[in-house]
Here is the input.
Amino acid sequence: MSTDSNTFLARSRFFPETIQPKQSFQLRNGTTVETCCPGVITFAPASIQSTKSIVLSSGVHGNETAPIEICEALVEALLQEKIKTQHRVMFIFGNLPAINSGERFVEENLNRLFNASLSIDNQEQVRAQELKREVHRFFENDSTHPSSHSDSKRIHYDLHTAIRESKNQKFVVYPYLHGHEYNKQQLRFLSACAVNTILLSQSPTSTFSYYTSRNYNAHSFTIELGKVKPFGQNDMASFSKVIEMLTQLITQQEPILPPLDECPLDVFDVKQVIDKHTADFKLHFADNIPNFTGFQKGSLLATDGDKEYRALEDDEAIVFPNANVALGQRALLTVVRCEI
Ligand SMILES: [Zn+2]
Here is the structure.
């Protein structure tokens, strides 16, 4: 986190009234900048030939600091003209009050609110509507208008860090594509970011990345970059490849990518989505076991009142276990290895 109190993110967090909504200005290098609202800023190159529209979101969970630090550094480098974008790019710092309090969320998990619901009963619900409006404005104003998912030049990387240790430190959730083909170019890009574990979601969800994939034909991913640490305690060296590739993505027409057969990808299908339905929900493994720990067929994973959840296959692995979620929300995913 920059200690400068005058960065776009610092002003958004502490002096949101100084961010003029929808105000644009031009940098000396011709880039058009628009401050859309607190925590949302776009950059567009002078050339109308820009081919990609890229959304980079961070801080959708307020305590996931490393992606916020990475994106803040990119925003400031663009504003100070240390780097120059070749594409339309939107940065979103998702949950500003939660970032300020160092918590995952204030009242409700923002990353469960990107569905059709229009309720605005708390600040996260209000923010989800605002972010959906801004993303809509951004994608609808691009010149690419993909007619199909496969030829889309729209990209959305929603950057997170996980609550627990993971055997596979960096991994992505590939939102359910409703039968569209997985994009090989995107897998090569992720591998170049040192993200080689791919989770294929098999159903619609209310996450931000599913929302942009489904509604705007964007190549969207929830990207987990490691374990949550407080601001300033992140080992930025472990993010060097992600930082390098995001910089290339923005500043080059095309980033330099490894061939697919050289990418050491590890692909998993989601096997079970286990929601919490009663206050008695319990996980039946140690609190601190890492994500992607495998279980043998028949192992008891969780109980929810009278209901038992067991591994259905050998080597079925657990991801995102969290017994403390609200009733009705996902408390555990299980995954099994597959080919893409
Ligand atoms: Zn997160």
